[in-house]
C-alpha cells in the first residue's frame, strides 16, 4: 500500500486509483465510478455483489438516480432523517451510473452519505465514489489501515495522516433498504432501523 499526502491522495482518487479511507461503519475501498471494475478485480468480488455510490451530500447523488418528483420527495424525507449515517438506499439508477457498478442489475444503485468527517471531506473534493468494504471477497472487513496495507500492498492509496493501528468505524455494516413499487424492503439489517 502506498501512503501519500492528502493532496496526492485526492489527486490519485480523481485520476482513477483505488483508495482506502475511514467511514462511520468500516474502512472503504473506493474508486471513481467509471473505474469500478478495478475494485471487483482487486477484491476478487463476484459480479452479483454491487458497489455503493458514496458522496458528501444528497445533492451529489441525485444525478445518478431516476424517479418521479414524488419519489424524490419521499427519498429526501428518509435522507434528511438518517443521513449522514449508516443507511444505504438502493434506488433506480439513471444512465449516469456506469453499468460496472452493478453488473447484474444496472437499473439500481446503492447510495449513501457516511457520518464520518474524514470521508465527507474527501468526497467533497473527489465527487461521488464507488465503494465497498476493505477486504477480499468472502473475508471479514478490515478495520485498520495497517491491516489494509498488509492485505493490498501498493495497489491501494491511503492518506498518511490516518493512524495505521487504530480501529476505524463502528465495525457494523450499514443497513441496506431497497425502494420498489413505492415501498422500502430491508435487504440487510445493520445499525439503523427504519421506523
TrEMBL record:
Question: According to its UniProt record, which reaction does this protein catalyse?
Answer: L-threonine + hydrogencarbonate + ATP = L-threonylcarbamoyladenylate + diphosphate + H2O
What sequence ranges are listed for the domain YrdC-like? 1-192
Q: Which domain of life is it from?
A: Bacteria
Known Pfam families for this protein?
A: Sua5_yciO_yrdC
The answer to whether keyword Phosphoprotein applies is no
Q: What is its EC number?
A: 2.7.7.87
Subcellular compartments: Cytoplasm
The enzyme's main class, written as a single word, is: transferase
One GO biological-process annotation of the entry reads:
regulation of translational fidelity
Q: Which GO terms describe its cellular component?
A: cytoplasm
**What keywords appear on the UniProt entry?**
ATP-binding, Cytoplasm, Nucleotide-binding, Nucleotidyltransferase, Transferase, tRNA processing
Molecular-function annotations in GO? ATP binding; double-stranded RNA binding; L-threonylcarbamoyladenylate synthase; tRNA binding
The answer on whether this UniProt entry bears the keyword ATP-binding reads yes
Which family does the similarity line name? Belongs to the SUA5 family.
What protein name applies here? Answer: L-threonylcarbamoyladenylate synthase
